[in-house]
Amino acid sequence: MASRIIIEVVDPFDLLRGPQVTIKSKVDKNNDTGDTDKVRRQAVRAAMKHAWDGYSKYAFGHDELQPVSNMSNDKWGGWGVTLIDSLDTLHIMELYEEFRQAVTHVAGVDFSHAQDGFTTPFFEMIIRSLAGLLSAYEMSLDRRLLEKAKQVGDALLPAFNSSTGIPYSRVDVNAGRAAPSNRVCIAEAGTVQLEYWKLSELTGNPIYHKTAQRVVDILDKAEKPHRGLYPIWIDIGTGKMNSGQITFGGMGDSWYEYMLKQHIYSRGTHSQYSRMYEESIDAMKEKMVKKSVFDPDMYYVGDLDSSATRFSPKFQHLTCFVPGMLALGSKTLDRPDDLELAKKLTYTCFQMYNKTKTGLSAEYVLFRDESGKGLTGKGTDDFATVDLDTATIAEQGDGFYFGNDRSYILRPETVESLMIMYRITGDKIYKEWGWQIFLDIEKWTKTSSAYSAYHDVTSTKRNEMLTDSMESFFLAETLKYLYLLFSPVNYYSLDDYVFNTEAHPFKIMS
Ligand code: DMJ
User: Fold this and answer.
1) Ligand 1 centroid from CA 500, angstroms
2) To 10 degrees, what angle do helices 35-59 and 429-445 make?
3) Per the residue annotation, which of 11, 63, 85, 124 is the catalytic one?
4) CB-based burial of residue 420 (10 Å sphere; 0-12 exposed, 13-18 middle, 19+ buried)?
5) At residue 140, what are phi and psi to the nearest 5 degrees?
6) pTM of the model
């Protein structure tokens, strides 16, 4: 048997914290599948370094770098969301000096305070900031990160101060109270549980988990149009779900994801999560999965209206997390059919990139339904029906159509699914697809300082298409998942870690 050599490196972060310690690089390079992986992993690491260096130079401590103008913005309230969201990616890629500088900065941020007049978006700051800090703490064991995580968790906890315990979507951190509103969507209310549970585990204070769990209990008991399917809007005053579409895309997506992930995190000790997850996936398969009339191999997940009767043949890039979720669920809950569906959906998600002129994917694509007729009808506020014969559908792709929004904003969902699919099936095609996507991100979105969102993926007029925006999830998720796709499967193994919806790995509860 070949002996396993683990490369040793000195972690400069440790040098500054205390006595010099030599740590072992966690990338088990001897377990690599070959030189190609190593080269690709290094290329992704170089992309992260490029983006990080640009952010550091022009926007350090601010929320975002604008990667064309090299300006910065604080549109998330000024806590430095790109910096926090990037911490664990820096650590995973062994960029320890950058990690150390970022932690030093975080230690000086007062998260109990926000910009005057700003109301902080609850869900976004939980999945990006609280999770980023918790994950970076678990990697480095630097107590300052846990203290800051607690500060963020406490600052945002007033979101739950409603009559039902359903959270409001924004918090006035300075006043210590939520900004009142009538409704909140299921993704916002139901994608904070993993983070608050981890905070309870690490601080020993159960209040965080208990408070967030209440949302799951309320929605579990609430009346639904169809078992396992949840219209997106929750009335905060009553806890009822009575309006909005049913979707595994924006505003619904991570609610479903977190049923499975809470099951994994708690090692199946609570039957509630697996039951709810299985109910939802069974219903999705029954009512929301269709295939293209032009390409019988192209399956997709559309949306339903709030009564679960009308179907919209719109497939969002955001929904491309579904194949990864199905694969993870199939492994965890022994659902082999889900893995077969996951393979078909991953194929579609890849084709959404592969079939455009740039090799980048649009925000969503549209299909004709299986009858070949397409849908007609006017959209309503809560449910956009699609008329495939109107001028709004300007161009037919190969198997699908493009709608009005053809932007690629550096989203991660497809490469997230590719990473999980590779790890679960061992099929190397997922690495090839991921590499192709990475090369097109490099080709079309790279700027002198970082990477920029792209306005229309069907246009090759590159200089006119760069929109001067780089969301923090590009560093937190897209580059991290690509790096892990080309890393040994035991590096941040899916058996030991559960990734939050922003790709922050949490150790599964022991
Ligand atoms: C991320 O912030 C999270 O993945 C979230 O759940 C939904 N989408 C964005 C990235 O596309």
Assistant:
1) 10
2) 30
3) 124
4) buried
5) -105, -20
6) 0.92
Our answer to whether residue 282 is catalytic in this structure is: no
Q: Does the annotation mark 303 as catalytic?
A: no
Residue 413 appears among annotated catalytic residues: yes
- Identify the CA nearest to 258 among candidates 499, 505, 10, 9: 499
d(CA 370, CA 478): 33
Contact 314, 299 (CB under 8 A): no
In order of 18, 217, 269, 458, the CA distances from 509 in angstroms are: 28, 21, 10, 45
Nearest of 163, 203, 398 to residue 295 by alpha carbon: 398
The yes-or-no verdict on residue 220 having pLDDT over 90 is yes
Q: What is the DSSP letter of 9?
A: E
> Whose structure tokens read 């991100």?
441
pLDDT at 402: 85
pLDDT in tens, 393-438: 445 667 788 888 899 999 999 999 999 999 999 999 999 999 999 9
Cβ within 8 Å of residue 221, ≥6 positions away: none
State the closest ligand 1 atom to the C-alpha of 191, by its place in the atom list counted from 1.
Answer: 6
Query: What's the CA gap between 419 and 484, in Å, rounded?
Result: 7
Q: How much is the pLDDT for 293?
A: 77
- Atom 8 in ligand 1: residue holding the nearest Cα: 318
Q: In the prediction, which pLDDT does 397 show?
A: 62
Residue 480 pLDDT > 50, yes or no? yes
Gap between the Cα atoms of 293 and 138, Å rounded: 48
**Residue ID of nearest Cα to ligand 1 atom 6:** 501
Cα of 501 to ligand 1 centre, how many Å? 6
Is 502 known to be catalytic?
no
Index of the ligand 1 atom closest to the CA of residue 254: 6
Task: Check residue 435 and give its pLDDT.
Answer: 98
The residue-averaged pLDDT of 169-188 equals 97
- CA–centroid distance, 502 to ligand 1, in Å, is 6
CB–CB of 87/80 below 8 Å? no
